[in-house]
Amino acid sequence: MALNIADLAHYRHAGHITVSGVFDAAQTSAVVADIEKWGEEFLADLPTAERVWYVDGGVKARTVLRKLDNPHHHRESVRQLASTPSLVEIVESLVGAGVSVFFSQIFFKPPEGGGPKPAHQDNFYFGPNDLEGVVTAWIALDDATLENGCLYFGEGTNRGPVYAHEAPADEPYNLQLPPALMARQPMLPAPVMRGGVSFHHGNTFHQSGPNLSTHWRRACALHYVNSHTLFEHPALPYDERLKLRIS
């Protein structure tokens, strides 16, 4: 499962790489069952004031979550994913030996309306002391296709700067790259099948479209850092106490 020299060169040049078949159907099914249970419990206890942060506004017929934060802290099934040797080997080849999960997310992207995520850079959100020390492992728990909202990447944007982001007045959490900048930046789709993992650099522009299909597009994003990288000046609050040492 280790990346070869050509794979590493592609990642350094393009800012992302997709690896198929890292996890099998049994592993992804177990995580989906667990996060569905967790999501039901979370939604039942979710205060009204926090719903705008977690509920998917694109789905009008029912109330469904768009995401959950820090599953690596709350769910053993995700901790098992995060510590899978084949995954950790790839992560270490990208950012160096000795890695931790600093933050993680579950994205639900429900069918028939699951909302898009505007283009952004993880390193703007995280504000790391080492821009090369962060890599996101985006694990497809369902097939992620053009129809149901796969990721899109700005090729080579990892080799550029971290840009200031902005947010709609009514969505201060939804930080995104300015429209004028994105008007000049092509974004290419990167479908990934269930069990595959898309790895991207913290500077790489990425976004996802809406889910216009009848199928779910669930994913787990694990944000790894190497041994000397911290979120030094983050745009949003992150709890360093939840950092999970993996290797």
Provide the fold topology.
Elements: H1 5-14, E1 16-19, H2 25-44, H3 51-54, E2 67-69, H4 71-74, H5 76-82, H6 85-95, E3 99-107, E4 117-120, H7 122-126, E5 134-140, E6 151-153, H8 179-182, E7 188-190, E8 197-201, E9 206-208, E10 219-226, E11 244-245
Antiparallel strand pairs: 1-8, 2-3, 3-10, 3-11, 4-9, 5-8, 5-10, 6-7, 6-9
What descriptive keywords fit this protein?
247 residues; alpha+beta; Jelly Rolls; four-stranded antiparallel beta sheet; 21% strand; globular
Give the N-terminus to C-terminus distance in angstroms: 17 Å
Poorly predicted runs are: none
Domain count, please report it: 1
The CATH architecture classification is: Sandwich
Radius of gyration, whole Å: 17 Å
Q: What's the pLDDT, averaged over the residues? A: 96
Overall shape: it is globular
Q: Could you estimate the helical fraction of the residues in percent?
A: 25-40%
Please identify the top-level CATH class. Mainly Beta
Kindly identify the CATH topology.
Answer: Jelly Rolls
Structural class: alpha+beta
Q: What string, H for helix and E for strand, traces the elements in order?
A: HEHHEHHHEEHEEHEEEEE
In DSSP terms (H or I, runs of 4 or more residues), the helix count works out at 8
**What's the total count of β strands?**
11
Question: Could you tell me the strand content as a percent range?
Answer: 15-25%
Largest sheet: 7 strands, antiparallel
Find the CATH superfamily. Answer: q2cbj1_9rhob like domain
